[in-house]
Amino acid sequence: MMKVLQHPHAVLRKIAEEVHDFNDVLLALCESMRRLMQEGTGGVGIAAPQLGVSKRVVVVDCSLGKHPCKNHGCLTMVNPLILEQSGKLLGREGCLSVPDWVAMVPRSKKITVQYQNEHGALQQLKTSAFEARVIQHEVDHLDGVLFIDRVLSTHDLVRRM
Q: Which of 16, 48, 65, 131 has its CA 20 to 30 A from that of 115?
């Protein structure tokens, strides 16, 4: 089973490479990421760089969260690009790669994201609230950005109990 890398691992700070080959290797990566989340990582999203794979792939499934919310189920996003953002919302975030900390992080309230599925088909999704937050968090991972980089004040950063 793949292990989640933890900060300050160097891969977490790299800009991930765009995926061009939609093949069995990519399908296996996507399946491993989905399985890792479903087997109880405690997360609602994972990005390939968190597993040591510097590729632009994320899996998001807000139905796995502690609090039910409107969501689109399990989303596998290859080469995601946020096209539109609106509104601002401050919300609590944590990260499997920074396991001991949570913080209040500003994010866009609504987003439109374009991505390819694991077979290469172009998709577009409009979402808001928690699901939008999770997608923004995972896309940040693809750009080498961690949630702790977005904290407005160190007073907002607290150790997880």
A: 65
Is 0.85 topped by the overall pTM? yes
Q: Domains plus CATH for the chain?
A: 10-159 (3.90.45.10)
Q: Distance between CA atoms of 22 and 93, rounded to whole angstroms?
A: 31
Q: How far apart are CA 68 and CA 155, in angstroms?
A: 28
Could you check whether the bond before residue 68 is cis, i.e. omega within 30 degrees of 0? no
Q: What is the pLDDT of residues 112-136, one digit of tens each?
A: 999 999 999 999 999 999 999 999 9
Backbone angles phi, psi at 3, to 5 degrees: -110, 145
Q: What is the pLDDT of residues 47-84, one digit of tens each?
A: 999 999 999 999 999 987 776 677 899 999 999 999 99
Catalytic (active site) residue 138: yes
Nearest to 80, CA basis, from 112, 43, 32, 41 = 112
Pick the catalytic residue from 93, 118, 131, 138.
Answer: 138
